[in-house]
């Protein structure tokens, strides 16, 4: 787990709805991955990175290559979660994130997620555009 650092991480508030829960009344495990995706996407948006534009102008899209997730405690209907995101490594064609979901400061779920940059046409790994790589390195832990 990377160290906390206020200037190099992003937070996103996510409310738990009925659609996020399972028959047991807790967040279905795969939905944490959706919450993490929203956290990464909104952080990039706040940094000025529009993924739709990146796909058109640079022919680059992001795909999840690998993830390791640990579920600690369940979230329930109406909980207001905080999704924390940190970049722990920026490679030539990949970005490693540490993300966690918290409720009132208590960690519920955490994960290390590797995102790969690929060519939008061939879906083969492709280098991050230089300007984007430089930007991401500035906010890396």
Write up this protein.
The chain is of the alpha+beta class. The protein has a single domain (6-138), classed as Hotdog Thioesterase (Thiol Ester Dehydrase, Chain A, Roll), CATH 3.10.129.10. 23% of the residues lie in helices and 38% in strands. It is built from three helices and five strands. It has helices at 31-46, 51-57, 130-138, and strands at residues 9-15, 60-71, 80-90, 94-103, 106-119. It has a five-stranded antiparallel sheet. A hairpin with a 3-residue loop joins strand 3 and strand 4. It is elongated and about 45 Å long. The termini are close together. Mean pLDDT is 94; it is low at 1-7.
Report the count of strand segments.
5
Helical residues, percent: 10-25%
Radius of gyration: 16 Å
Poorly predicted ranges (pLDDT <50, ≥5 residues)?
A: 1-7
Overall spatial form: elongated
Structural class: alpha+beta
Tell me what portion of residues adopts beta-strand conformation: 35-45%
Q: What is the CA-CA span between the terminal residues?
A: 11 Å
| Main sheet attributes: strand count, strand direction, barrel closure | 5 strands, antiparallel
What is the average per-residue confidence, as pLDDT, rounded to a whole number?
A: 94
Order of helices and strands: EHHEEEEH
Per CATH, what is the topology?
Answer: Thiol Ester Dehydrase, Chain A
Assigned CATH superfamily:
Hotdog Thioesterase
Strand order of the largest sheet: 1-3-4-5-2
Number of domains: 1
CATH class: Alpha Beta
Count of helical regions: 3
